[in-house]
C-alpha cells in the first residue's frame, strides 16, 4: 500500500484553485474527494478511501452515524486535477477551513489535510509535546 506523508506548501488563487502535490496525486489519482475536517481543516481522500470511510459510518448506530455522515458526506465535493495539476476548493469549504492564499497540504497515511498555513504554524507552536509523548508511549513506541 502506498502511504501519503510529508507536507507541501502551496498557493491558492482567488478562484480557489491550488496545485495538488504530484506525490499525492500519484497515489490518490487525479480525482479526489474534499470535505470538512474536525479541526477546521479540509480532508482529502481518494474516492475508494472515502467510500470505505462512509461504509464504516453506515455501520454505526443511526443516532451516532447520521450526524457524522451529514458532517463529512454532506459537505464533500469531487475535485479533479486540471492540466496544471490544480484542484478547485469551493468557497464554502475555503470558508470552513479559513483558507487564504498560502496553504499547506499534509499527507497522513490514507488521506491528506489542507490547512491555512498560518493556522497550521500556530497550531504547531501550541503542540503539547509531553502529551504527545504520553500518547506515543501508550501505543508501545
- Strand tally: 8
CATH topology: Chemotaxis protein chec
For the biggest sheet, the summary is:
6 strands, antiparallel
Name of the CATH homologous superfamily: Transcriptional regulator MraZ domain
Tally of distinct domains: 1
| CATH class descriptor name | Alpha Beta
- Backbone CA Rg: 16 Å
SS strand fraction: 25-35%
Average residue-wise pLDDT: 92
User: H/E order of the elements?
Assistant: EEHEEHHEEHEEHH
**Within the largest sheet, what's the order of strands?**
1-7-8-4-3-5
Helix vs. strand class:
alpha+beta
What is the count of DSSP helices, taking H or I runs of 4+ residues? 6
CATH architecture type: 3-Layer(aba) Sandwich
Shape: globular
Structure overview:
The protein is of the alpha+beta class and 141 residues long. It has a single domain, classed as Transcriptional regulator MraZ domain (Chemotaxis protein chec, 3-Layer(aba) Sandwich), CATH 3.40.1550.20. The protein is 40% helix and 29% strand. It has six helices and eight strands; from the N terminus they run E-E-H-E-E-H-H-E-E-H-E-E-H-H. The strands form two sheets. The chain has a six-stranded antiparallel sheet with strand order 1-7-8-4-3-5. A two-stranded antiparallel ribbon has the order 2-6. Strand 7 (102-109) and strand 8 form a beta hairpin. The longest helix is centred in the middle third of the chain and has 13 residues, at 47-59.
Amino acid at each position: 500500500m502506498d502511504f501519503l506523508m510529508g507536507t507541501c506548501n502551496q498557493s491558492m488563487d482567488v478562484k480557489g484553485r491550488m496545485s495538488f502535490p504530484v506525490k499525492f496525486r500519484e497515489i490518490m489519482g487525479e480525482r479526489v474527494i474534499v470535505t470538512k475536517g474536525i479541526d477546521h481543516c479540509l480532508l482529502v481522500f481518494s474516492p475508494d478511501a472515502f467510500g470505505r470511510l462512509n461504509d464504516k459510518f453506515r455501520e454505526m448506530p443511526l443516532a451516532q452515524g447520521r450526524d457524522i455522515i451529514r458532517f463529512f458526506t454532506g459537505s464533500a465535493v469531487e475535485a479533479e486535477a486540471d492540466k496544471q495539476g490544480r484542484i478547485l476548493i469551493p468557497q464554502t469549504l475555503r470558508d470552513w477551513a479559513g483558507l487564504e492564499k498560502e496553504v499547506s497540504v499534509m499527507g497522513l497515511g490514507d488521506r491528506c489535510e489542507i490547512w491555512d498555513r498560518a493556522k497550521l504554524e500556530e497550531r504547531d507552536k501550541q503542540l503539547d509535546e509531553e502529551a504527545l509523548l504520553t500518547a506515543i508511549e501508550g501505543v508501545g513506541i
